[in-house]
Design a protein that fits this description.
The chain has six helices and ten strands, in the order βαβαβαβαβββββαβα. It is α/β, with parallel strands linked by helices.
């Protein structure tokens, strides 16, 4: 039987899980599978991560590239979780520096994980313990090449041309 082109993915608050998780893929299991199964590349776009992300990266054999937001403050600062993770694993971090002078240009809200260009999670969950295990989050696990290719091109554009390395944050 052929794998479906997209399947629903959900995080439910604990009080709702007993009745509504039957037959649904959980955000935790989908992300764990994407990270652990990737061999060639793992591309991640998420504004917020916490140490849960480090555990996911530890499970992958693929090089990881992430586009994220800097830690809040003036001036913007690199994310300490990501920078520590990058010192231990094959992880390249780029930051969307959304401000010019003092004006907010845009905010990143996108969440995307692409494994080997073959499967992707697109949804609302940040790569944090709360989003993966406790919030109400919805997403899709996509395996359709006609969807994956433009998503991958979009990610590559942001990683290569829009987002900056930690030393370029201002």
């Amino acid at each position: 039987m052929e794998e479906p082109l997209a399947i629903p993915v959900v995080t439910l608050p604990p009080a709702l899980r007993e009745h509504y998780l039957q037959g649904l893929q959980t955000t935790a299991s989908v992300l764990a599978d994407l990270f652990s199964s990737a061999r060639r590349s793992l591309k991640v776009m998420a504004p917020y991560v916490d140490p849960t992300f480090t555990a996911l990266v530890a499970a992958t054999k693929a090089p990881v590239r992430i586009v994220t937001t800097p830690s809040p403050g003036r001036p913007p600062r690199p994310n300490p979780v990501l920078e520590r993770c990058a010192s231990m694993y094959d992880l390249a971090v780029r930051y969307l520096n959304e401000r010019r002078d003092r004006a907010l240009i845009f905010q990143m809200h996108a969440k995307l994980v692409i494994a080997d260009g073959e499967r992707a999670y697109v949804g609302s969950a940040n790569l944090t313990d709360t989003s993966i295990h406790y919030n109400l989050e919805l997403g899709l696990l996509v395996a359709a090449p006609e969807v994956l290719q433009p998503l991958e091109r979009l990610f590559d554009y942001f990683f290569d041309h829009v987002a900056v390395r930690k030393g370029q944050l201002r």
